[in-house]
Amino acid sequence: MVNKNSIPQLNNEVKIKIGLIGDAQVGKTSLMVKYVQNVFDEEYTQTLGVHYLERKINLGSTDVIFSIMDLGGQREFINMLPLVSNRAVAIIFLFDLTRPETLTSIREWYRQARGFNETAIPLLVGTKYDLLVNLDVAYQEEVSKTSMRYAQVMGAPLIFCSTASSINVQKIFKVVIAKAFNLTLRIPEIKDIGDPLLIYKTLGNQPQRQSADYSEHARCRQPEQIRNMTSEH
Ligand SMILES: Nc1nc2c(ncn2[C@@H]2O[C@H](COP(=O)(O)OP(=O)(O)O)[C@@H](O)[C@H]2O)c(=O)[nH]1
Ligand SMILES: [Mg+2]
């Protein structure tokens, strides 16, 4: 048996702060808890009462620690915004696919968050895809096209996810890693209206200002390492 300790290790550790921003009830805390603890349970999430979680991921000789921060409840959101945005490497803007007004709000969230952090990698994420599929086809088309336009303006990848049905949850964070470390991601895009969109090549492909800080940690890493990280279940 190979003794792990005999293998030379670089033991790099990089902490990446990720901010989750969006209207109340869009599913920010649920997404964070699902990603870190693989649980989707409203009661559990509320009991937990957390708005900050960490998950460590191994990327070759580098350990990447995602520190994920969620806006608190409805009331304190204005005060919380700098705390969530400042020094975030990525900001995930979330809206509820079944409530178009939460997409409209993204405009203001984006403007304010950008005021605190100009360089974070933005992502636009539509939540509760499991509920969207039951809605009118014309509505699905409209929300898909509108969110594509928003993502275009934001320079952000666009991902539809369902925390309840485990759709695209892991992939959101793979896109974050790929963008932060300048790695090639080989996950196929999903672009057909009605499907859980995953668009990260044609949307959000502009080079980020100051992203070089993070890409240096990941030099020589192979795309396989991202592909093999954690698969969706
Ligand atoms: N059907 C469905 N419900 C969800 C999903 N994600 C979150 N929810 C529900 O949406 C509500 C708000 O979620 P929460 O994470 O507290 O939202 P937050 O206020 O943005 O943190 C809760 O009742 C969740 O159970 C999802 O993917 N599908
Ligand atoms: Mg919450």
Automatic annotation (TrEMBL):
Q: Does the keyword Transmembrane helix apply?
A: no
A Gene Ontology BP annotation from the UniProt entry: cell division
Q: Where is this region: Disordered?
A: 209-233
Q: Which GO terms describe its molecular function?
A: GTP binding; GTPase activity
Q: Does the keyword tRNA-binding apply?
A: no
Family annotation (InterPro entries): P-loop_NTPase, Small_GTP-bd, Small_GTPase, Small_GTPase_Tem1/Spg1
Taxonomy, superkingdom: Eukaryota
Q: Give me the stretches of Basic and acidic residues compositional bias.
A: 214-233
| GO cellular component entries | spindle pole body
Which protein is depicted? Septum-promoting GTP-binding protein 1
| Taxonomic classification | Eukaryota, Fungi, Dikarya, Ascomycota, Saccharomycotina
